[in-house]
Amino acid sequence: MSDFFLVRDDGFHPDDGAELVILAPDTDPATLDDYLEQALIAIEFPAMTDGRGFSLARILRERGYKGRLRAVGGLIADQYAMARRVGFDEMRIPAALAERQPQEQWLFRADWQDWDHRSRLAG
What we know:
24% strand, 6-stranded mixed sheet, 5 helices
């Protein structure tokens, strides 16, 4: 069994071992333009309570980043929809987390495009 899985809207996939640029959560947003031509960028989440990576992903997309964006580290299924909404294409999770939170829990949150918290509050 692989040590990691990639989570996408259609479920778990084996980690592809792709070469990627990894950004720390404290990366200065002023430097993000330096990465816009990369094919694959990963943003680290040292803990599920550290949301700085969500902001970096949103800023990268707003600046025109078109490549694959991967969240790596301490995230859980409940954060999948938020990760997709801010621009991540996928998340990389450890196999131990995949055992505790099986694919069904992640797929339950794959309806991220249909759920808009702000419009539901306004409605």
